[in-house]
Write a structure and sequence with these properties.
CATH superfamily of the largest domain: ATPase, nucleotide binding domain
Low-confidence stretches: 351-358
Radius of gyration: 20 Å
Shape: globular
Helix content: 40-55%
Bound molecules: 5'-O-[(R)-(carboxyoxy)(hydroxy)phosphoryl]adenosine, zinc ion
Order of helices and strands: EEEHHEHEHEEEHHHHEHEHH
Strand order of the largest sheet: 3-2-1-4-5
Largest sheet: 5 strands, mixed
CATH topology of the largest domain: Nucleotidyltransferase, domain 5
Number of domains: 2
Structural class: alpha/beta
CATH architecture of the largest domain: 2-Layer Sandwich
Length: 358
């Protein structure tokens, strides 16, 4: 079975060809980074217009790279949300059009489900249930992944997502966009002990997150430095910030593992997905956290951690394998939680200005 996956929920225009034998025949990602960088974040209108301009070419590129024609496809999977609504609509409508014209089954995939199942594309031994840490620019949550289309949210952020916090911190430190890789790079030469930053919610029960206080504390430290920041200050602030975020994720992770193991004592894996899972300090500490708790850490390769269409094609394959076929009337959705029954975390407020990037 060969599936064409399409992803346009935020600022990556992506198409991929994946088989049910876990072969990635093509995985093409056109990043709009340069178009959004001057604004320090994703501009929804620019994103949607750029998807329209590039998606046809990106799909053609993937088909050429995979050496297949439309008649070789068995199904189409496209992201239907959550995300920037104009952006989502471009990929979803294109996917529907291809499915309609070629009379193929269609999967309207939740972008978060793409991230949640991506580790199974490259790790054939990864069995359900597993504990997922989804850390990206728009999401920061722990989920028990019990099976395809069966997700229980254990904890989530009450304000910013971890990636969003990295991006805002990088902006404050004038390190550029996207912030995560820039902070990680700057932190390499930094002293993580120099600045004492808070660890929001650390030591509290549950596995919810909060990052907005940390961002404000960082702003205060920046203001306290007289005469502006030099490179050493930037490196030390970046290192201190990265250490604080990582400490919080590990503390919350400890509780999430307890929550998960109570319900699923047979579960053996901790999976980290989403752009922030690219962070090497976080990966290192998650690995030791997993091992201390008798679990293994599974992280998809970098290209499948950040937004891509191979994970959407794979989620489509998993869904179609469970006869979860969608109508061509499937609607685009700006908000679309994986666990619709999850209670809102205590004190939950706005999720930040950046919008529902997943
Ligand atoms: O999953 P993703 O590509 O897009 C969505 O948000 O869906 O994640 C992007 C986020 C950005 O906020 C970026 O700053 C963060 O992931 N990120 C990182 C690193 N690489 C990307 N954060 C920390 N360390 C990194 N190395
Ligand atoms: Zn994402």
């Amino acid at each position: 079975m060969m599936v064409l996956g399409i992803e346009t929920s935020c600022d990556e225009t992506a198409a991929a060809l994946v088989t049910d034998g876990r072969e990635i025949r093509a995985n093409v990602v056109f990043s709009q980074l340069d178009q959004h960088a001057p604004y320090g974040g994703v501009v929804p209108e620019i994103a949607a217009r750029s998807h329209i301009e590039h998606l046809d070419g990106v799909i053609a590129h993937a088909m050429r790279e995979g050496g297949v024609g439309f008649s070789d496809l068995d199904a189409i999977a496209a992201t239907a949300g959550p995300g920037l609504i104009g952006a989502v609509m471009v990929g979803l409508m294109t996917g529907k059009a291809v499915a309609g014209v070629h009379n193929l089954p269609f999967a309207a995939v939740n972008h978060l489900e793409g991230h949640a199942l991506s580790a199974r594309l490259t790790d054939e031994h990864l069995q359900f249930p597993y504990l997922l840490l989804l850390v990206s620019g728009g999401h920061c949550q722990f989920l028990a992944v019990e099976g395809v289309a069966r997700y229980q949210r254990l904890g989530t952020t009450i304000d910013d997502a971890a990636g969003e916090a990295f991006d805002k911190a990088a902006k404050l430190l004038e390190l550029g966009y996207p912030g995560g890789p820039a902070i990680e790079q700057a932190a390499r030469d930094g002293d993580a002990e120099r600045f004492d930053l808070p660890r929001p919610l650390k030591g509290r029960p549950g596995s919810d997150f909060s990052f907005s206080g940390l961002k404000t504390a960082l702003l205060q430290k920046v203001r306290d430095i007289e005469g502006g920041l030099n490179d050493k200050d930037r490196a030390d602030l970046a290192a201190s910030f990265q250490a604080a975020v990582t400490d919080v994720v590990i503390d919350r992770g400890r509780n999430a593992i307890r929550q998960f193991q109570t319900k699923h004592p047979e579960g053996q894996a901790l999976v980290a997905a989403g752009g922030v899972a690219a962070n090497s300090l976080l990966r290192k500490r998650l690995k030791s956290l997993a091992e201390k708790n008798g679990m293994t850490l599974s992280v998809p390769p970098l290209a499948l951690c950040t937004d891509n269409a191979a994970m959407i094609a794979w989620a489509g394959i998993e869904r179609l394998g469970h006869n979860l076929v969608d109508e061509l009337s499937a609607a685009p959705r700006a908000r679309w939680p994986l666990d619709v029954d999850a209670p809102r975390p205590p004190g939950a407020g706005r999720t930040g200005k950046r919008g529902p990037k997943a």
